[in-house]
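pasting for the record
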Amino acid sequence: MARPTMKKFLVLYLVPVQVMGDWAKTDPETRKAAEEKMRNDWQSWMREHAKMITLTEAAGKTKGVTSTGIADTKNDIILYSIVEAESHETAAKTFAHHPHLTIPQSSIQVMEVRPMGGPA
């Protein structure tokens, strides 16, 4: 049986800048324990879904570029992934119970990517 054509998706892991700032002020011991739990849950999730994930990387410092210039800025993106799935719905449902969503006010956005000039 032929394998269905897989589509590619950009996944953005978002946490409001203020939430990240507040988290940095958390007691170091409390933060360390919570981060370790999150890391373990995340690694477990990644192993379970490894076949669909082609890349996951952390986002770094941000530069905003406009017609008037370039400046340091901040946004809510902390990580991104590239994943493959049969459909947009399938890709999004995969992230419905992702450990990232345990962070207060966090969200995940899943966007289909396609070659420039390709069908919408």
